[in-house]
Design brief:
two-stranded antiparallel sheet
């Protein structure tokens, strides 16, 4: 009966590829395939639930395929379905069916009807993968899919400035969460010596579990998973991305940021509970973050002029309360809270246009003149200060930009004295020497060998900083990204005796993606299209085929699970040790910045308003 888990995953995947066969005009066919597939998955879930109950509520476990295994390094998929997974899956499947049915008329005759349904179904597939995951690697694949589909649905109206810009903002934070999970997986591999399966941990749901005894791992591993959960669930200080994500269609906003995606951080905390539930300090940390988020987001939600923004911050508030429930060990209370809040927020967002119209009319006919303010006491001043801070959303967006991303831009501009010609020439020389030395280790002096990983990691960091601020040419930015990816692999290769096969697995996807992306940019240049990065060009309107090819190339470079680089990335990280703090920071920064540079490059080339006025036009402030 456990094999039915595979069918739960294959059905949404089959729907996704099935809808690709139809054109945008075949709305009825796309809708019918989508709703029929989701309905079939719901019936299948009921069947599996009946078997699960008859089996004494024992978790359903299935060992999936192993993609790579050599020595202590392995990468495979494992699946597990228990009570928490059932609760989330039933809610997710029901709400997805509701949204698919509602969207039939909501996005009727939209140019992106098919694109919208493709993204919703692929999002559902990624969500099911996360909820069925039996190990951290499987969760990571689904987590990546959720991030990519978010990027496309926030920027669904790609002829407008703000949706494209906000999609870039949100995916920047999402990539930070992705890297946090990746590093958490890497640390857990070092501690356990193998891939961590949730069902193999002793006392999976017990508050007396002793999974982590080492002081460093006791705090480092759960901290990384907590960071990923905080970002994905819009907890303080990352709460400001949630209203920015409301730029997409109301239906996708309802399923993504009102109900399902915004709550997935709670599920991650429950799944990784054995890592932190015996650490009482962590209970206080999780509860404190939830309490702070609940208080701050409540203040912000009460004064927002936009109904979607109000709902977004209200949802963050409730997720903060769920964090408190999880910190108290009340996992099932958090699950029940999730179901109720998901249903409520989906309903609120779907009816929000009607409510807004009613409120506008109500205000017109029941206007009340503001009262004259009298003498203000200290309490009045305090209330006013909190009010102003709440209207400004506690400056969370400014804080993110000023202290998270702006320092990297400043560093990138600080190395402008390095010309691109010099940097590319030095990169070729450095790579050639490094590749030769890696294949001939006897040529490396012992005193020099320990410094090579840091040197190559730092050099790759300089390269990606240069790409991060490059504005004149997308070809130069693309070349710098490729150089960064290749040289960072040498840094990890020098760090420990490296299996050459692992390096080739990583570089295989990089090389193919680099060639495809470079060819696309060459075609743009050949056809006299603008390829600078000073603005959004919107080339997808006239070159949708090239846009798709370039997107696949970008995803390949990012380590998305469409090339062997996805596996190679984790295999190479296994050669990094937790006591190499400086090298760890450099690798961490490289992983984040390369993601930002790639998404920025794709967005500026192919998304946004096209310069030709015969395409759809939208004002900057729309």
């Amino acid at each position: 009966m456990n094999f039915l888990i595979y069918i739960l995953l294959l059905i949404p995947l089959a729907i996704f590829f099935g809808t690709l066969l139809f054109s945008n005009k075949n709305e009825k066919s796309i809708y019918f395939i989508s709703i029929a597939g989701i309905g079939l998955n719901y019936l299948l879930l009921i069947s599996i639930l009946a078997f699960w109950i008859s089996n004494g509520f024992e978790p359903l476990i299935l060992d999936g395929p192993t993609f790579y295994e050599a020595g202590n390094s392995s990468f495979g998929l494992n699946f597990m379905l228990d009570g928490y997974g059932f609760a989330y899956l039933f809610t997710a499947t029901f709400l997805t069916a509701v949204i698919i049915n509602f969207s039939r008329t909501y996005v009727h005759r939209e140019k992106g009807f098919k694109r919208f349904y493709n993204n919703i179904i692929f999002f559902y597939f990624g969500l099911v993968l996360v909820l069925l995951a039996g190990n951290l690697e499987t969760i990571f694949i689904g987590w990546e899919i959720l991030g990519i589909t978010s990027f496309f649905l926030i920027g669904f109206y790609r002829n407008r400035y703000l949706p494209v810009k906000n999609a870039l903002k949100v995916v920047s934070l999402y990539r930070l969460a992705d890297v946090a999970i990746l590093l958490g997986i890497w640390l857990s591999h070092h501690y356990f010596g193998h891939s961590v399966n949730f069902y193999s941990m002793e006392h999976l749901s017990s508050s007396h579990a002793h999974v982590l005894d080492n002081e460093f791992y006791k705090y480092a591993i759960p901290s990384l998973f907590l960071l990923a959960a905080m970002i994905k669930s819009a907890q303080f200080p990352f709460s400001s991305w949630l209203p920015r994500a409301m730029e997409g269609p109301t239906t996708s906003t309802s399923i993504f940021y009102g109900s399902l995606s915004a709550h997935i951080g709670v599920f991650l905390l429950i799944r990784t509970a054995p890592f932190w539930e015996n650490n009482y300090w962590f209970h206080f940390i999780i509860g404190g973050i939830g309490l702070l988020t609940a208080v701050v987001c409540t203040f912000i939600a009460r004064v927002q002029p936009s109904i979607k923004t109000e709902i977004a911050y209200s949802s963050s508030t409730q997720v903060g309360v769920m964090f408190i429930e999880v910190s108290l060990g009340l996992y099932w209370l958090a699950i029940i809270h999730f179901i109720g809040n998901a249903m409520l927020r989906s309903h609120q967002l779907l009816i929000s246009p009607s409510i807004l119209s009613y409120r506008i009319h109500d205000l017109n006919f029941h206007f009340k003149q503001p009262q004259v303010q009298g003498k203000r006491t200290f309490l009045d001043r305090l209330k006013l200060s909190i009010y102003i801070l709440s209207v400004k959303e506690f400056n969370l967006d400014t804080f993110m930009y000023k202290y998270l991303w702006n320092p990297f831009k400043s560093m990138g501009h600080a190395i402008n004295f390095l010309s691109l010609k010099v940097l590319f020439s030095v990169s070729i020389i450095v790579f050639s020497i490094g590749f030769y030395a890696l294949n001939n280790p006897a040529t490396i002096p012992a005193d020099l060998e320990i410094y090579l990983p840091i040197f190559y990691a730092f050099f790759s960091f300089l390269i990606i900083l240069k790409s991060f601020v490059e504005r004149k040419s997308s070809a130069n930015a693309w070349g710098l990204i490729i150089a960064n990816q290749i040289i960072i692999s040498l840094a990890l290769g020098f760090n420990e005796k490296l299996n050459t096969d692992e390096l080739y697995i990583y570089l295989s996807g990089i090389v193919v993606s680099s060639i495809i992306g470079g060819w696309v940019i060459f075609q743009l240049h050949k056809k006299k299209y603008a390829i600078d990065l000073n603005e959004f060009h919107g080339h997808i309107y006239e070159l949708p085929g090239l846009a798709l090819l370039f997107l696949l190339a970008c995803l390949g470079l990012l380590g998305f699970p469409i090339t062997p680089t996805f596996i190679g990335e984790e295999l190479l990280l296994n050669h990094l040790h937790e006591n190499q703090f400086f090298l760890l920071i450099l690798v961490f920064l490289n992983l984040i910045l390369v993601s930002l540079a790639i998404f920025r490059l794709y967005s500026r080339l192919f998304r946004g308003q096209h310069k030709s006025d015969y395409h759809d036009f939208a004002y900057r402030s729309s």
